[in-house]
Amino acid sequence: MKNYHATSSLILRLGMAAVVAWFGTAQITNPAAWVSLVPNWAMSISPLSRAWIIYLNGGFEIIAALFLALGIFSRWAALLLSLHLLVIASAFGSSPTGVRDFGLAVALFVIFLSGKDSYCLDYKDTSKETLVIEIK
């Protein structure tokens, strides 16, 4: 079962990266479909148009998904995406979209808590390092 732990972490990380990348790409390629979802409170604190908020959000999601998929800064990407999705889920409340986004936020938080898996590019296995003492 130990092998399943490493593989399950990889599957969760890649699966969440695919979901986030899909949403980010959809926002970049068709921002008009998303502008109605930008909450009014976001408009009140930003000088940007709704379309620009969508472009920036999509860009953030694509970059964070890439970090997740490659295993580079994956913990921080997962934490930022989790917090990001919690804000989005709270805007939708207990609607199906809000509940789905809450579940995705929890899955991303689990990735953050789990840390790097052995398939991450920035993984360094310290269990095989040896201490070398130099005598002069």
Description:
With 136 residues, this protein is an all-alpha fold. It has one domain. Helix content is 68%, strand content 0%. The chain contains five helices and no strands. The protein has helices spanning 2-29, 40-45, 50-70, 74-92, 96-114. Helix 1 (2-29) packs antiparallel against helix 3 and helix 4 runs antiparallel to helix 5. The longest helix has 28 residues, at 2-29. 24% of the residues are buried. The model has no long low-confidence stretch (mean pLDDT 88).
Structural category: mainly alpha
Biggest sheet, open or closed, and with what strands and sense? none
Strand content: under 5%
Between the first and last Cα atoms, what is the distance in angstroms? 46 Å
Radius of gyration, whole Å: 18 Å
- Tally of distinct domains: 1
Tally of separate helices = 5
Task: Summarize the entry for a quick read.
The chain is mainly alpha-helical. Helices cover 68% and strands 0% of the residues.
Strand-helix topology:
Blueprint lengths: L1 H28 L10 H6 L4 H21 L3 H19 L3 H19 L22
Helix pairs in contact: 1-3, 1-5, 3-4, 4-5
Features:
136 residues; mainly alpha
